[in-house]
Input
Amino acid sequence: MLTSKRFTRKEVEELVNALQLPRIVRAANRITEDSRTALCMLLARLAYPNRLCDLALKFGWPVERVSRISTVVQGFIHDRWYHVLVWDPQRLTPECLARYARAIEQKGAPIGTVWGFIDGTIRAIARPTQHQQTCYNGWKRKHCLKYHAIVTPDGLISHLFGPVDGS
Output
């Protein structure tokens, strides 16, 4: 089994179980692959700067196979877990967003459509033993992970993205 640059074999196994991927992934043209390898294909496909032709060489299969299997896995994950990826309609209603925008505008914002603020946070980490360059931030001159959040005027985090590599 192959693993991506960013996940160990154990972590890929945990992801396969957590995402509830089927044991065998089948594409429309009857190409099949085990779920671990199929997930690794998708992870490698989503990692920048991999192109399909690079992945075909890495996995030793035709470009079409890599494309179809990774697309099937991506579709499965989207269909199965879409409900956790969507907007929170109970908390972030149009009325609530308008209230946030009014509060921000009353504090002196030049436009009345801002309802939250982007908060970028860099968290320092110990220097990793492998792949140090991916976590090194030359601007801060330290190894770190980055997080981005949207914070509403009431101080709650309405969206969180991260961690991502410090570079």
